[in-house]
Amino acid sequence: MMMKLPSAGGRSPLFALAVSSGVVLVFIFGFMAWQRPSRIPFPHSAGSTHSVITSTGERVDISINEIIRLLYDGLKAAPTEPFIREPNGSHIELPSRPRYKKKMGSDILILDLETRPLQSTEDFKKGEYDWRNINHVSGGVFNHYTYALIHGYDYKFIHAHEFEDRHATWIKPSALANHIKDYKFIVFLDADAAFRFLHVPIEWMLNYWDIKPQHSFVMAKDPWDPKEPQYNSDRFNRTYTNTGFMIVQNNENTMPMLKAWHECPEDTRYANCSQWKQPKFHEQSAFGEYIRYDYDKYIKELDCGEANGFPGVEISNCQGKFVRHYWFEKHNVKTDFRENIMNAITLPIQKIFAENKGGVIIEQKQNAIHA
Ligand SMILES: *[C@@H]1O[C@H](CO)[C@@H](O)[C@H](O)[C@H]1NC(C)=O
Ligand SMILES: *[C@@H]1O[C@H](CO)[C@@H](O)[C@H](O)[C@H]1NC(C)=O
Ligand SMILES: *[C@@H]1O[C@H](CO)[C@@H](O)[C@H](O)[C@H]1NC(C)=O
């Protein structure tokens, strides 16, 4: 089931956004339209459309999809970008000989999966949408959706129904199995996990992590805490991988793995897997205790810090280098999203001041009142 996106109309949140920051958006869009006359096509018909008067007085229909794409057009990293610049000035260098040189666009699906509807949608329907009041779930989902728009990936929000006999997170294997056949990769994130750099495409991360054709799953490990050595460890004392961020690649082992995982609690292939129907960590434990031992070669386990945790976590240095997963302090999902978007919006504004576009900067050589 796809998330119903707001249709055109005065009550959409995008309209509210356009009103609240209307001057800025019109200004930026006018500036961008003037900069790049060619319209960028986008495959999604979703997204609400509004008429905007550009600075040249021309009336154009734009959607948030197009605004986001234009905003990130000059900011996006290439799949083979030599390095990514961190806000503190450090560089994260791409290793030599990257495998993924081209953007994969709609061969990649960004996937959200929830049993609950978005609470912000309720507010929106009442005409009460406000960014400041939305919870981290909407914040995370909006981060994922925006990421898909920026890079031209497909996006789906699957609203799954609850199991009767097992915990809600068991919906993951079947949802992945039902969509992987249409894609080369599915990138799944929990709502409390988000892309740290919206401008860095997943192809770049696939290169950075050296994901090979045989890898069906990419997941980051959970932290290992010497004070609680068993907490995130399986019965062989191996640390679990976290299912809050998964890259699933469509290859010959993917469906068998997803099926084995989904059917694990039936205890046919794996005795005692049903013990994970309800207790923590549910499907994550089942994957760690059983599935990975049959398919080890096809799983790329990343260090925790690559795609799990968040700044300030000390154990296992899990600081979310590329994907942040806020096990606690979940509201920071929104902060990270806001920082990304503000960076994108203020860059063209900064450009205006740097280049004195439209003569906004006026030299006052003599501090005297002219007659
Ligand atoms: C910048 O931050 C990263 C963590 O995000 C850290 O690994 C790196 O050492 C920092 N660099 C500097 C120059 O502080
Ligand atoms: C479990 O693994 C950790 C390292 O991850 C190690 O320090 C510890 O000694 C191991 N415990 C046992 C009982 O083998
Ligand atoms: C299954 O779990 C029970 C306890 O939950 C244990 O006594 C039994 O040995 C387990 N069987 C296997 C095959 O691991």
TrEMBL record:
Pfam families: Nucleotid_trans. The chain crosses the membrane at residues 12-34. One of its GO terms (molecular function) is glycosyltransferase activity. Keywords: Glycosyltransferase, Membrane, Transferase, Transmembrane, Transmembrane helix. Residues 170-298 form the Nucleotide-diphospho-sugar transferase domain. GO terms for cellular component: Golgi membrane. Gene3D superfamilies: Spore Coat Polysaccharide Biosynthesis Protein SpsA, Chain A. GO terms for biological process: protein N-linked glycosylation. Belongs to the glycosyltransferase 34 family. This is Nucleotide-diphospho-sugar transferase domain-containing protein. It comes from Cucurbitaria berberidis CBS 394.84.
